[in-house]
Every structure is written in C-alpha cells, then in structure tokens.
Amino acid sequence: MAAGEHNGPMPGDASDAQRDGGAAPVGLSRVVPGKATPRGAYPHVKVVGDLVWVSGTSSRRADDSFAGVDVAADGSVHLDIREQTRAVIDNIADILGSVGCDLTDLVQVTSYLVDMGDFAGYNEVYAEYFDHTGPTRTTVAVRELPHPHLLIEIQAVAHRRTGRG
User: Fold this and answer.
1) Which residues pair with 135 in a beta bridge?
2) Tens digit of pLDDT for each residue in 110-147?
C-alpha cells in the first residue's frame, strides 16, 4: 500500500461485511501525494463501494501557498475568487483522478464562500466546468475558513462507474 493510504476500517466504522459477520475493510482512504497535506487527521478522499467522498478542498498548494492570492511589496493582499475557484475545482479533479474518477463522476458538491459578494465570480468559473447536467450543488456562506486568504472551499461526492479505479 502506498504512503498516505489506509485500506481498512477506520475507528468507529463498520462495513457491510462486518455488519453481516465478515471482516472486510470499509474502503480506501487516501492522502494524495503532490497535494496540500490535510491540516488534520483526515484523508483527501475516501472510497466505499462505488461512492467517493472528497474532503473540503481549497486553493492551497502542496508548498502551502495559495492560488488566487497576491501579496504586494507593501503587504497589501489581493484575493481572486475566480482563480481560487478554478484551483479548487482542479484540485478536486486531481484528487478524483487518484481513485480513477473525474469531474463527470461528481453527483453533489457543497461550496463554502466567506463572502456571498463573491458568488458571481465563483458561479462564472463553476460554469466553465459544469452545466445543468452536472452535480447538484449547495452554496453556503461561512464566517471564515482555516486561513484568512481562503475565499472558498468545496467538498464533493462522486459515484465511481463500474470498471474504474
């Protein structure tokens, strides 16, 4: 098994096989190499059967910098919702790719925006990736995200098609 993967039951989990008396693993949990390390004890992605859950994902890069953030020489900060949204969706695509899926496999996304004033820019970029045949979506405003430079975070659920991964 590759570093960052956990294949088997997580504390508190019970698989169908375990409920039926067997001892099969619950699924695959993975921290994806080359992506920003999660800031807690959770994976980027978890697969159970044909369902795939992607943890809340931001524009943070593996080097802990952020897409969509420009810090000027005078210390002023410019945050770009369009660039951050694009980076978040691209990060989700990479995470899905690590388990044999892609953005077309998404069935539901939940987006968290720090400022609903950014909704139009976020929605514009979102429409570059998805149309009315894409995943269902909920967008909510939150007071803050784990870093002051973050404007958006998205979590997602996908359905892995037969023969993938």
Assistant:
1) none
2) 999 999 999 999 999 999 999 999 999 999 999 999 99
Q: Please give the radius of gyration of the chain, using alpha carbons only, rounded to the nearest integer.
A: 17
The verdict on residue 1 lying in a domain is: no
User: Is 144 domain-assigned?
Assistant: yes
Q: Can you give the CATH number for the domain in which 29 is found?
A: 3.30.1330.40
**Cα(149)–Cα(104) distance, integer angstroms:** 29
For residue 118, what are the domain limits? 25-159
Q: What is the pLDDT of residues 62-100, one digit of tens each?
A: 999 999 999 999 999 999 999 999 999 999 999 999 999
Amino acid identity of residue 71, one-letter, is V
Q: Which of 41, 51, 56, 57 is nearest to 6 (CA)?
A: 41
**100 within domain boundaries:** yes
